[in-house]
Amino acid sequence: MPINRRVLTPVAAAPVVLAVVCFFFWSSIIAPDRLKDTKHVLQVAKTIPLPGDGPESLEFDSQGEGPYVGVTDGRILKWRGEELGWVDFAYMSPHRDNCSRHEVVPSCGRPLGLSFDRKTGDLYICDGYFGIMKVGPEGGLAELVVDEVEGRKVMFANQMDIDEEEDVFYFNDSSDKYHFGEVFYVSISGDRVGRVIRYDMTKKEGKVIMDKLHLPNGLSLSKNGSFVITCEGGTGILHRIWVKGPKTGTSEIFARVPGLPDNIRRTPTGDFWVALHCKDNLFTRLFLSHSWIGKSFMKTLKMETVIHLMNGGKPHGIILKLSGETGEILETLEDSEGTTMKYVSEAYEREDGKLWLGSVYWPAVWVLDTSVFDGK
Asked: What are the alphabetically sorted keywords of the record (predicted)?
């Protein structure tokens, strides 16, 4: 039977119409959302360049020295102040010949979340390829702590936090299929294969306390250690997992954020800073609401294109401060034009009133005085 020309004409015209719409409205389609009650202050932060890319996480030792940061080529660097600058502290792998400053080489490792054990001085490292590593107070070559839990390989250790009273730590394994290098494929795939793990350092045993998560990314303990906060980078949802007290073993939604969350850090007063890789836009809402769309993008788009679309064509900086009790957003700080900050991955507030920020890609960290936004 011949196809009716009245049916054929609109079908044939659909791609043309779509192309015209995209041509005229493309900037609106990928433009990041505008947020209410935001403070545009991140662009005034001081920039400290690095001899390496991607200081994804920051940490300070028990003497207050640092920050220590992990970079793309598998090293941990330590900041020694303006005069001495950055010095090598540790590295993930003895195989250093092919390590690249700008591109991740799996054999070199990729250090992500950092946490000091204040009792021992050991620095624990979430490596996006090897698992959980640690290095002693003198630095050097890191050693493996855990790379398998409940019979499954730790593919993508992301961020952790240590409960020193209990001698346990908690960490995210973001995917059972992809390593760090494919992080944005994890985000758009829709696969719920991430998990949160409790590891007993005395017994050397790991236990999954929450699973079926869509790219669990940041993680932090509450100030009293009664619950763990973890965020799904693929949904913008933060979960509260109770690990002590009468609610132990239960979980609930703690907050929803207007973008793709990365690392979480507890403030000195018990609230939480959450870094957003980017704000939501129509593109991110599209693939987050329909996993089949995300999977089709994985087959047709390069990683660089996915990152470009998710950032609205304009990498920017945004962090949120959430109440440690209710999850309410207390502060929204931005560099919406990306003038100073891009791809912000973590915000770490110190008791001296300084806010340090890292980036998953950029070769710098930033420092901002909290008086800029808190009115003190």
From this structure: Glycoprotein, Membrane, Signal, Transmembrane, Transmembrane helix, Vacuole
Compute the Cα dihedral for 145, 350, 364, 231 and give only its sign. Answer: positive
Measured in whole angstroms, the distance separating CA 293 from the mean position of its chain's CA atoms is: 23
CB atoms within 10 A of CB 342: 18
Amino acid, single-letter form, for residue 279: K
Distance CA(189)–CA(167), nearest Å, equals: 35
Between 29 and 363, name the one with better pLDDT.
Answer: 363
Q: CATH fold of 33-374, please?
A: Neuraminidase (2.120.10)
Q: For the segment 198-230, what is each residue's pLDDT rounded down to a tens digit? A: 999 999 999 999 999 999 999 999 999 999 999
Reading the block at residue 255, the tokens are: 């907050």
- Identify the helix (H) or strand (E) that includes residue 318: strand 317-322
Query: Please, which residues have CB within 8 angstroms of residue 11's CB and are 6 or more apart in sequence?
Result: none
Structure tokens at 226: 């009664």
pTM of the entire structure? 0.89
